[in-house]
Amino acid sequence: MNTATSGSMQLPQPYLLFLGDVAERGFAKTALGLRDWAPEKCVGELALPGATVSTGLPAMTPAQAHAAGARALVIGVANSGGVIPPSWRASLVAALEAGLDIVAGMHMRIVDVPEVRDAAERLGRQLIDVRVPPADIPVATGRKRTGKRLLTVGTDCALGKKYTALALARAFVACGVDADFRATGQTGIMIAGGGMPMDAVISDFEAGAAEMLSPDAAADHWDVIEGQGSLAHPAYAAVSLGLLHGSQPDVFVVCHEPGRTDMLGTAGYQVATIEEIIELTLALGRRTNPDIRCGGFSFNTAALSEEEARLVMDRESARLGLPVADPVRGGPNLDALVASCLA
Fold first, then answer.
1. pLDDT at 246 over 90
2. How far is it, in rounded angstroms, from Cα 154 to Cα 229?
């Protein structure tokens, strides 16, 4: 058995996307992100009975996927707590037996699942955990670094911070700007081929990990940094704050899903308002970058029609005084957001 952890690794591709028995779309963000941003690396999906979320890719057994060219099964679920439940394990072993390696981004390491580890050792297959940070992360210094940085922040989890960062990085490059997407979660790392799994870093080293992720750069270079969690989330605010302090963004973009009322995975807590996140981000972000500013807003309008999305984005842009765009819909709204961020 070969094992590997996060970093600038070469992952075995293409992928069979494993959806387990997921019933909450937000928890399938790894599979959906790979489908949307790395479709050339995905051949199909594997779901268990009880799953109600699909990527729309062909349903395949591990053997069918291997015959179609897949070389790894990717666990496409980011569930609460990042666990690998017993109900998944027979399918993971079957993937190894079909000739596939396994790529995982859970808090629970795939190599720590005995039956999966034993099967990988017996078959000579790779188990790759991308949510394992490097061992040499320093404590943050707070030193101002050269280059420019943009951070996506959110009113909640799993509503578009990664999609927004990817779309903005791509748009910056299309405008002739020297820019890099900096991944901070398992899906982004799988798309980019490297990054820093921020929510697996010990709290004292969060800001240092963010500094390490986005080092000194040329004066006109932009690092577009994928945000994590939300500063207002009762469970995940810690990773958001460490990332904010360590990345020292010059610009931040607030990500929001119109119509979402409750915070993901935390019953009884309402989604923060956009204004609350602006206020928190400015107040806390000024600690390491006094010149931080809001560049605009990114809305996840997947649940709205084209006309409804346009009306909501136009109304909120007028109310908030900055551009509002959907990174998937793109168009003039995204062009305006890009211009505001680069201004």
1. yes
2. 7
